[in-house]
Design a protein that fits this description.
Number of strands: 0
Helix content: over 70%
Oligomer: single chain
Distance between the termini: 18 Å
Largest sheet: none
CATH topology: Na+/H+ antiporter like fold
Shape: globular
Length: 365
């Protein structure tokens, strides 16, 4: 991630800033500047929706409609994504990322801290409700891992520029490392597997090897040219992972009994939409990332909808049923996670938009 400086306000905002300075002398009502900033931020809501929420929703809708007219098995699609598409995306992203150690280290600490706290809260809620098996892990992953990729990168870029995009990409890398190590282990261990079998699954994950290979390539200085054939091929394969994720989400939603799964998932959805943003603000304050723009971007990214990767991993590694005691109310781990992803995509827009508004007003960061 590039070392970023404090975000500079555009020219028209600087002009407003100078007007506010002149208020000290009694020339202008200071409330005028705040009102203009609020109106400007509210005016960005349609752009945020069209550029960041509508595209992933439309792709998921295509998957849903496909599931209505054809019977499609999601497991082979998930396998291709986990073993081919995502490793290419992770490797290409990591070797082309420029890092500034100071801000990056603080941001990584905040990301890991946020994930740990929200995951622990979700685990406690699930256990208090009598849930067991891989649904406990699936719910924790859905609550703790926001969609920092196809949702977060456009939102962060739109709101915070290059610093926001770099923060989102770093968040993606931290999430992939945690999901494909700790996440795969817990899903494997939460079923009928042993510790040894779960660790074996982690070691066999191509994403883990892609992370190691990317780190070695950067350390040894043997990264292929960014505009060369090798990187173009990796980029082409990796970019395909995002729409496939969303098609799988749409197919999974189509196959669900939403009446049951929505009721079951409401506590996790509430945790993701209402509690997780508060945790992000608290963690950012405790860690003191240092750069106000990166801090605001981190909070906005953490408040986004649930990531789709936990759904793919739940299909690949989750057990068949993971509901409470009543068999009639039990849902599979994949259905549980898929419902959380779907509902948080719909519910996150006002939350994310409100946080972007607060960032524009200088409250965050």
């Amino acid at each position: 991630m590039k070392t970023v400086k404090k975000r500079e306000r555009p020219a028209e905002t600087d002009a407003l800033g100078r007007r506010v300075d002149s208020v000290i002398g009694g020339d202008i009502d200071p409330r005028t500047d705040t009102a203009v900033q609020i109106l400007d931020a509210l005016g960005s809501i349609p752009s945020v929706f069209l550029s960041s929420v509508a595209p992933p929703l439309s792709i998921a809708l295509a998957g849903y409609l496909l599931g209505r007219v054809r019977e499609v098995d999601t497991e082979p699609l998930s396998t291709v994504t986990v073993y081919v598409l995502l490793p290419a995306l992770v490797f290409e992203t990591l070797v082309t990322l420029e890092t500034g150690l100071g801000t990056a280290a603080a941001a990584v600490a905040a990301m890991v801290g946020f994930t740990t706290v929200v995951g622990a809260l979700s685990w406690a809620v699930s256990r208090a409700r009598g849930q067991e098996g891989t649904v406990v892990t699936g719910a924790a992953m859905a609550a703790a891992f926001p969609n920092t990729g196809n949702f977060g990168i456009p939102v962060a870029t739109f709101a915070f520029g290059a610093a926001g995009r770099s923060t989102a990409v770093l968040f993606v890398l931290v999430q992939n490392l945690l999901l494909y190590t700790v996440g795969v282990y817990l899903l494997s261990r939460g079923g009928s597997g042993t510790d040894r079998a779960a660790l074996g699954r982690v070691a066999r994950q191509p994403v883990v090897w892609a992370l190691l290979a990317a780190g070695a390539a950067v350390a040894l200085g043997v990264v292929p040219p960014e505009d060369g054939t090798a990187m173009d091929t990796l980029r082409l394969v990796g970019d395909a992972s995002i729409p496939v994720f969303l098609v799988v989400l749409g197919l999974q939603v189509e196959s669900m009994d939403l009446g049951v799964t929505v009721r079951e998932t409401l506590p996790t959805v509430g945790l993701k939409l209402l509690v997780a943003p508060v945790v992000a603000v608290a963690v950012a304050a405790l860690v003191d990332i240092g750069d106000p723009t990166v801090t605001a971007a981190f909070v906005v990214l953490a408040a986004g909808p649930s990531a789709v990767i936990p759904l793919v991993l739940s299909i690949e590694f989750g057990d068949d049923e993971a509901g409470p005691a009543s068999e009639s109310d039990s849902v599979s781990t994949a259905d549980y996670v898929g419902t959380v992803v779907f509902l948080t995509i719909l519910g996150s827009l006002p939350v994310v938009t409100g946080l972007v508004l607060l960032a524009e007003l200088g409250v965050l960061g």
